[in-house]
Amino acid sequence: MTDIMALHVRYAVKKLMDNEFEDEIMDGVLGGAGAGNDIEKMFEESPSTTRKREQLRKSIQKLKESNEVVGKIIESVSFLE
Asked: Which of 13, 32, 55, 78: disulfide with 42, CB 3.0–4.6 Å?
């Protein structure tokens, strides 16, 4: 049961990251294609991207910590068997 939940969380995070980055890239490419925009401007990070990156960094950190906790729980359960 714990493995299923961990896999589901991992899948959900991957799906979220893929969707968010895809949307952000498409907005940058299509929105920045107007006349007078340099390629450098397309690669500048917007404030919303910075916030999303920070949120993802925090989520990844929490997932790593959760992974350690789940690992300890699994070890203790297997120790009891």
From this structure: 32
